Structures are given as C-alpha cells and as structure tokens.
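Structure first, sequence second, as always.
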C-alpha cells in the first residue's frame, strides 16, 4: 500500500475526540490516515443492525400503523438486510440469532404503546433517530486548516419525550453487565454532546436515557439509566471540547501527533497500531490495513455497505449537511 493521504477531518464526533484524548497518535492513524483492519468490527456491525432494525420497527408501528406482530415481521426483513452475510471472525455472543433474540426481548420489555419513553412529535409526525451538525464558529475555537469552522456531529437512536419533556435515548449493546454500568454515563462526553447539540437547535432538554442491551451466550437482559446533565457539566464539556480542538490543531500544524505510551496501548487487549508505533518505519505496516474513512453521520461509520442499506431517517428539521447527511439532521446555521 502507498502511504495514504493525511486528511484532517472537518467533522468531528464523540468517538473521534475520545480517541484523540486517549492517544493522539491513534487518532492520526485511524482518523487522519483512515487506517482500519480489513475485518469489520462485530460490535459496530451488530450495534448498527440492532439500531437500524429498531428504527424500522418504530416507523412501521407509529407511521404505518401496523400491529406489533406485523411491524416485527417487517423489522426482521430489515435486520436480515442489515446483517447481510456478515460472519464474525472471533467467538462472540453477538451472532445473527442472538442479536435478533435481543431485539425481540427489547420490544417485549418496552412495548411501543406503553413505553415510558415515547417518540417526540414535530408537526404531528413522530421522530426517531436524531442526528445533528453544529458548526463550531465561536471565535474562541480554532479553525480547520481549510479556514472553515470545525463541525460537531453525531447521531442518537431516538429523540423522544419522557414525563412531558424532550429526552434523548440511546441503546448500548454489550456482552456483559458491569457492576458500575449505570455510573459509566455520569460524565459521558457523548451524551453531554447530544444534549448540548439539541439545545443549539432550540430544544429544552437536559436528559438522556441509556438503555443497555446485554447479550451473552446464555442470557439476554435489558437495563436502563436515566441521566440528567446540569448546565455546569454542559459548560464543562464545551470548554473541554474547545481545548481538545486547539490541541488537535497544534498537532496538525506541528505535524506530530503525541504518543500515549501507557495504558491506552494495551487497554481492551493491544492497540491495533502498536506495530506502527514500535517501528521507525510505520509505513512498512500500512499494507496490513485498509483505508476506510470514518463517516460520523453513518449508522456504521466504517461500513459503507451497511450504511447504504440503513432505513431512511424521519425529518426533525430540514437541512443539508456533509458528510452523507440523513434526512433528519438538525443543522445549526452559522
């Protein structure tokens, strides 16, 4: 492989920023060069299939007024299409059958008509998946080398209503339930960013419902945590975002992305880029990877095939945004 082009993304999301905070060099390899292993991540694939199927089910139930069994039947076709011929290369409970079983269990646990979190209605129409693009044109923020402001983007599984107020709901599929599962989201930048972005679009919101879908080989379990984020935490998130982007811009200008040289190298196993960091000639390892650019507005940001088969989103607010914006993007103008 020839050396891939170094492209500093204009659009940034919580995953990219989390990687940058953990290890700027990993951010460089993954998001600037676009290097990825040839195999598809089972976690990304299974999670995207689950969320796409859930959105399809809700549309059939709420928009097309189908019964739950009829909506489930159509959702199964969606799930089959999103899963495709994918076969995990590692031993995992996230198989086709177990993920569909998890979906059935989810609908049984949270029946759409009596679910305490209902869709949010705009002009009489229910909303489902929530996407956003927010230009960071505050003068205290750095500019992208192109001269344009960086754009903060993301997508959550549902914009809903809870106890008469707007709420964002997001599903997390996992192979285990940690003892501190509910506390993991107390300072989660991803959800703070969701709330902040929704506020930029004029929504009076401060709450995220996190639903855990736990899939093991012997058990499927549904758990939920309702998190309220204070104005103090939202401001803290915003200031940290500004500092992170200034650091990112300095790394780009210096043409040197710092190395963690610590726990990030071995967290969750070994970092896939360790051979590059250990070599004086990292380009010799590029042939072990493919170049697949992260598209933060796709349901599966590294799998264009699965993303292209995702069901179309329902509008929340009209707008056009890059990259590959779905129809329900909330775009905050300059």
């Amino acid at each position: 492989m020839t050396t891939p082009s170094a492209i500093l993304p204009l659009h940034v999301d919580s995953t990219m920023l989390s990687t940058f905070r953990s290890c700027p060099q990993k951010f460089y390899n993954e998001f600037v060069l676009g290097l990825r292993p040839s195999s598809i991540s089972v976690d990304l694939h299974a999670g995207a299939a689950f969320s796409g199927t859930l959105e399809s089910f809700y549309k059939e139930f709420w928009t097309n007024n189908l019964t739950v069994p009829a909506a489930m039947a159509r959702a199964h076709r969606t799930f089959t299409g999103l899963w495709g011929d994918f076969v995990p290369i590692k031993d995992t409970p996230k198989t086709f059958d177990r993920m569909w079983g998890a979906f059935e269990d989810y609908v049984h646990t949270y029946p759409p008509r009596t679910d305490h979190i209902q869709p949010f209605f705009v002009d009489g129409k229910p909303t489902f998946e929530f996407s956003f693009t927010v230009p960071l044109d505050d003068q205290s923020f750095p500019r992208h080398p192109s001269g344009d402001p960086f754009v903060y983007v993301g997508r959550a599984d549902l914009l809903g209503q809870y106890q008469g107020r707007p709420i964002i709901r997001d599903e997390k599929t996992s192979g285990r339930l940690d003892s501190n599962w509910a506390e993991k989201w107390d300072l989660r930048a991803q959800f703070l960013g969701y709330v902040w972005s929704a506020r930029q679009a004029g929504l009076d919101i401060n709450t995220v419902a996190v639903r855990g879908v736990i899939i093991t080989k012997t058990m499927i379990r549904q758990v939920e945590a309702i998190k309220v984020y204070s104005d103090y935490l939202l401001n803290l998130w915003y200031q940290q975002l500004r500092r992170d982007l200034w650091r990112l811009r300095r790394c780009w200008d210096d043409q040197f992305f710092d190395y963690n040289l610590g726990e990030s190298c071995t967290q969750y196993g070994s970092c896939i880029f360790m051979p590059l960091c250990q070599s004086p000639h990292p380009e010799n390892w590029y042939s072990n990877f493919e170049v697949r650019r992260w598209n933060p507005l796709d349901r599966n940001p590294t799998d264009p095939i699965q993303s292209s088969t995702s069901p179309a989103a329902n509008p929340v607010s009209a707008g056009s945004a890059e990259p590959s914006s779905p129809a329900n993007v909330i775009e905050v103008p300059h």
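Margin note: Residues 137 and 198 are 17 Å apart (CA to CA).
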